[in-house]
Amino acid sequence: MKKWTETVTFFAMAILEIRDLYVSVGGTQILKGVDLALEEGKVHALMGPNGSGKSTLAFAVAGHPAYRIERGKILLSGVDITHLPPNERAKKGLFLAFQYPPEVEGVRLREFMRIACDGQGTGFCEFKDAYPQAAKRLAMEELADRELNVGFSGGEKKRSELLQAWLLKPKVALLDEPDSGVDVDAVRLIADAIRELAESGAAVLIITHYPRILEHVPPARVFVLEEGRISQEGGPELAQAIEAGGFKAVRR
Length: 252
Ligand SMILES: Nc1ncnc2c1ncn2[C@@H]1O[C@H](COP(=O)(O)OP(=O)(O)O)[C@@H](O)[C@H]1O
Ligand SMILES: [Mg+2]
Known about the structure:
The strands form two sheets. A six-stranded mixed beta sheet has the order 6-7-8-3-9-10, sandwiched between helices. The protein is built from nine helices and ten strands. Helices cover about 40% and strands about 25% of the residues. The longest helix has 16 residues, at about 185-200. The chain is of the alpha/beta class. α4 (about 110-120) packs parallel to α6 (about 155-170) and α6 runs parallel beside α7. It has a single domain (about 15-250), classed as P-loop containing nucleotide triphosphate hydrolases (Rossmann fold, 3-Layer(aba) Sandwich), CATH 3.40.50.300. The site of adenosine-5'-diphosphate has 12 residues, from α2.
């Protein structure tokens, strides 16, 4: 039993708290009591086999209307956001990088980023300085005038998602498979950019079923999602055990 002072400290540090979350999609219950806490300035990893509900959790936290929250709570900086619309969550500092970033015809990358920053209260001058820096860091200078994600390679799409995170400076960044469809060199660049995002204060959650990216950006905590619940929680050694023996090796 923890003393109340320790409990208070723990909750004060968690910026995103997910409590006993039940989510259904298309009439099927996918999440069955997920508990998860993310801390400021730290990298966390959510792992789990294909179809275990990782993206469902990300969409439910972001407020996608197809993902019905049946029970439980989501708190951001102690504020209940469980039933807020997605744009309100985003304004409070929640960010989701999609596993499959959509292609948006007719909207140029830099223009899209400017509008997103504007919606968050970033001034035009501030954006004018920040955009080239972030684009350079993510090796995306050439893509500014291209239509958002249209014809982008797998790696370019993932970097375009991270570029948004860099510019919006979220409190919580949920990154759904930032490494999938990305070649080895780009994984390193993406991993470095993710680490810097956390160093600037964001609570980062890397969702992946492939431990490779975690070698470049070691997570402080690793969560394993199986059958709609967090089945395991531990340090970086948990990702290494999964790398070595698969999810079955860490099953209790
Ligand atoms: N929009 C949807 N409609 C119906 N079923 C869905 C939908 N989204 C996810 N699912 C189902 O939920 C389960 C978990 O999917 P998902 O969250 O994408 O898993 P993961 O990201 O871990 O691979 C799968 O069985 C999937 O088919
Ligand atoms: Mg997924």
